[in-house]
Design brief:
Length: 236
Amino acid sequence: MKQFTSIAAVVAVALTLAAVASAGRKHGHAHIRVAVKAHTVKVSVAQRRGALVRAAVTYLGVDKATIVAALESGQSLAQIATAHGKTADGLVAAIVAPAKLKLDAAVAAGRLTPDRETTLVTRLQTAVTKLVNRTRKAPHAGDRPVRVQIAAILKPALAYLGLDFKAVATQLRSGKTLADIAAAQNKTAAGLVDAVVNSVKTALDKRVAAGKLTAAAETTFLTQLQTRVTAIVAGS
């Protein structure tokens, strides 16, 4: 969630600019910059994320879960705003507004010059605009390594052999291979391999249908599984 953290970090810093400015003219404007840098280190990820969500939820009139889901799918905040009848510029203004109000107050109190406020607000608007329009790559089903439970391998193997795990383990300890055990059960090594691969394929087919796995990733995994199980059955 780098996008999330970056935007909210800007917001969190913005909300403290006025307070920093009120420290007094005797420290000068350089003090503002130093204090802002120090604050960025102290703001937690949770605080940053919360600041962004609150600003977006308020402006867009959309619940938090909807915004998070849209960001995770690869949309930018600008796209989310447009989809809900709002504008990216309006969202930027909404995010910047609390900080600008405090800076306005600092100027009115004589703690900050108008020119300095303009510079700070412009920088903030530029940074927020860039982040609001940024998109992140949506996670792709085929990007993640394919994994199945160990039971997905053992259960169909034991069912094909007609034996429980203890019986198979006892024979393996005596020096037999799974191919030997299959033969003793009037079964074949190839049949044992197919039983495992076909069972796993059935489970992976459901992931593909649900959009959680690509067909290409499934094919690659099953090819590797066929090779690995064949070696295991042969005892090599």
